[in-house]
Recover the amino acids of this structure.
């Protein structure tokens, strides 16, 4: 491999609760503790969601702030990426933690369907989140749930709305969005290479597609994710 | 070419108004008249939207009913396709004309961004529109604004929610959705062929992409559209 592999650990995610799995870290303290274990095992990037005390998802900047503080203290040098995903709030609430100036934040550059609803990222919201990331010097990780989101990210970079080089995560296996499909994965990689040759990328499979996508990513020279 | 070419005429569309172009047919009478001219010139399929008297878009079943009646009388044998597109209403309103049992109706199998908003086709709405089409024996034209919508259409066919063979329209050139891109067009055609070998398809370019897409479609064996 020519690029060093960045091992990503997703902290908690936005869906599972203690009811699904009692080991899921919910409080900020639990999250810091479990991330430190991954960090010591070699993970170099933490993708972070936060929860309310009752386990529901939130975009609360205060909680994100305590998480960032804990990670900086216990995992020095780890890349911190905060989620602006739509499960944790609506509209501009979703970017309320960007003034914390984390290293990175997720940014979906389009809308699509999710298992039971529309994942809404209106053009206006996408532009606003991107402008906040420029303002606070946060590098976006483009979450591409479908092909057009790659085109849209490149267009935004060309228009100066996103600072390059792009970093894109190809997300596959979310019900009603893009399934795990090797030919599509290869086309994603080729399209990004064609439109933005300096971009970096990674693959993220949801559920049982995760291991498969990690393998494809490694073989094709992308990053990996646990 | 092995398949006969189906020339489609889009009646009015959902965006232009008399202010943009005084020749745009708005009343049902004007629509029937202009479609008859296209029919006599060789068009065999009419893709239909309807308007209120003030030119705004609507899904009003009464207006669609008068349009269908006029087309059946003046364009005998022409395939009538009614739009269930989201510019003309929200939620189940959009399928209120399906009991008219037109030959075909449009069906988007996912959500995406449009120039200024989210084009919302929730999983629940897509399933309901598809079930109404089965109930009234209406053949859907899948409107694929992005790659995952092709996968979703095939999945719905496999689950019995859409009666095969599929007919898919690849829509390119809508701002914030999929741009006009030849490599993507070729991948769309290859993907549909791989997943649903008996499917038919056509390409629709919006604005200045229209002529280009017609040419690609003809070369690759799809239908064409005026
Ligand atoms: Zn996330
Ligand atoms: Zn990465
Ligand atoms: Zn239409
Ligand atoms: Zn056709």
């Amino acid at each position: 491999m020519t690029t060093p592999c960045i091992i990503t650990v997703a902290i908690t995610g936005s869906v599972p609760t203690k009811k699904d799995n009692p080991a899921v870290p919910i409080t900020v303290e639990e999250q810091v503790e479990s991330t430190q274990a991954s960090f010591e095992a070699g993970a170099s990037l933490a993708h972070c969601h936060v929860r309310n005390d009752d386990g529901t998802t939130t975009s609360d900047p205060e909680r994100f702030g305590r998480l960032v503080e804990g990670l900086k203290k216990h995992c020095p040098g780890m890349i911190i990426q905060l989620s602006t995903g739509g499960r944790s709030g609506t509209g501009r609430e979703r970017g309320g933690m960007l003034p914390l100036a984390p290293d990175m934040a997720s940014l979906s550059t389009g809308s699509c369907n999710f298992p039971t609803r529309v994942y809404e990222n209106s053009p206006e919201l996408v532009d606003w989140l991107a402008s906040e990331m420029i303002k606070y010097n946060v590098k976006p990780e483009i979450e591409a749930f479908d092909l057009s989101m790659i085109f849209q990210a490149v267009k935004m970079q060309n228009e100066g709305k996103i600072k390059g080089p792009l970093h894109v995560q190809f997300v596959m296996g979310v019900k009603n969005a893009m399934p795990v499909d090797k030919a599509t994965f290869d086309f994603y990689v080729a399209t990004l290479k064609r439109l933005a040759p300096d971009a970096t990328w990674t693959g993220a499979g949801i559920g049982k597609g995760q291991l498969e996508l990690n393998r494809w990513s490694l073989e094709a020279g992308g990053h990996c994710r646990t």
User: Anything to note?
Assistant: The pocket of zinc ion (ligand 1) is lined by residues A 14, 47, 49, 83, 85 (CB under 6 Å). The radius of gyration of chain A is 16 Å. The longest helix of chain A spans residues 61-74. Chain A has a mean pLDDT of 90.
